[in-house]
Amino acid sequence: MTRTTEQAHTVRLTMTQALVRWLTMQSTVIDGQTVPLFAGVFGIFGHGNVTCLSEALEAVQDVLPTWRGQNEQSMALAAVGFAKAKRRRQLMVATSSIGPGALNMVTAAGTAHANRLPVLLLAGDSFTNRLPDPVMQQVEHFGDPTVTVSDAFKAVTRYWDRITHPSQIISSLPQAVAAMLDPADCGPAFLSLPQDTQELAFDYPIEFFEPRMWQVPRPRPDRTKLAEAVALLKTAKKPLIISGGGVRYSGAEEAVAAFAAKRGIPVVETIAGKGGLTHYHPVHAGPIGIIGSTSANALAGEADVIIAIGTRLMDFTTGSWTAFDKAARFIAINAARYDAIKHRSVAVVGDALESVQELDEGLGDWAAPASHFSHAKALFATWDALLDSHQAPTNSPVPTYAQVVNVVNAAAAENDTLIAAAGGIPGEVAKGWRVKAPNTFDLEFGFSCMGYEIAAGWGCAMAQEGPGAPGGTPIVMVGDGTYMMMNSDIYSTVLSGHKMIVIVCDNGGYAVISRLQQAKGVPGFNNLLKDCRITDRAQPLHVDFAAHAASMGAASRKCDSLADLAPALEWAKSNDRTTVITIVTDAYAWVPGDADWDVGVPEVSNRDGVADARAHQQEIRAKQRVGV
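== 3D-(3,5/4)-trihydroxycyclohexane-1,2-dione acylhydrolase (Decyclizing) ==
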């Protein structure tokens, strides 16, 4: 039992007891309901967090549940997936030991940082007094003994602190939460917890543990910049809205759609923004960019004024800045100043919902020419028909990704959430997944983190249980390469009872990166399994993923053809636990894309294919806008 001594205005607790007690007193509001700000903890205990932090967490497990992961990276990715499903309104904590346990979370921190998603990371650390140095798992820096593996998180977190005295959490914890909930600075927060600091007791002010309600702020835009944006938009003949992830996190989807309909402006979506609108919403003109649609990319090339809302305009959105006319002007609505000023934009720094509503108020009766909107609808109809042609079943014994996506999409309930990340699947679902209900699509491509998918499915399944969630079942689509990299949270969901459906598309290796490799003149090498160094090519190259999943307690089934997939999905939906379905897919057939991408190609090479690719790459670079 934790022993505390309460006097007039203090309570005596260890640092970790105080930290955990403070976490339990934080709350937020989602859809009018008061809920804990921190919904739970993902933890793997070891050297550096098992004796003190676990002692504190065990005492509050009924109000702050702790879930045991199988890998520190995947459990932190589950926390990222949870935050995304909650649209940054509710958070999870992930904790690790020192050394390799902490470093395993760095990739997850990078994923959260790139995608502007909040997660609180707590890692054990070596002793501040250094008396036992070097301890097990300590990495020593001979010229700077203050450096530990915790410093690795500085590059991938929005807030970083090392707690060297128990009183420091009084100021650090509120700052960490404020950073995670700030729409302009949102991302992961990291606290390093040295072992000897964790054990120390301190007389904490009782006020520190008073219940606190947090809400995400909605900063309003500067009036002068808003007026400048209104003046610019009124000059537009072919305007375009790019709707990014910030629209979804602001809860501005309906406002943006209403604004677009009223003003006759087609809306295209970024990868993070996809799912803000349903596929057949009247203003929707498709996903934009390298893994986008012909309709959206055509509109981008024609646009004279682009309103970029809640997007950081990464290269997959902009076609490495080749997708737009060099004379086109940008209005950037973004809570983050850093994103808003990109590419000579009229920077409207503010919350998406507030900014769009105020922009609308300033436009009077202005609207874009009706012919422009009609043109956009025609382009989208052409794109939709192109999708149909690529997704239709054929007599080929090996189905394409597009065909598999179509069958899974058809079987998905309106409120089921599709989750994908790295490999060939992102391009196919970004183009071909027809969103049925808002905010049921999670494609992590800001960091393109292999291994996110199954872990995020676990976090998403948890998030479906509370307010503000669409409900339904997470449907995770992964390639065989990603499955091999990180699959252990299938077992986590079996243990915890959080169901998801996993579709494994087995195309014999890293097919999409092999596609890029060969497109740039390099022979297939070390990507597809058949192109790797193998001792015996007579042996089968494919893993029995269904048997592997079954060994972790999941229900599983292998589909021998596309015709088997729909019945397998119906069976999966009827099961009471995580279900894994595997199907062999084509490694060479893809839905076409028409946006350019700037990648490095050797300037000199003896390969004719490389020389040709280099020449083409120079042509791409000649089309780029200058981002000043």
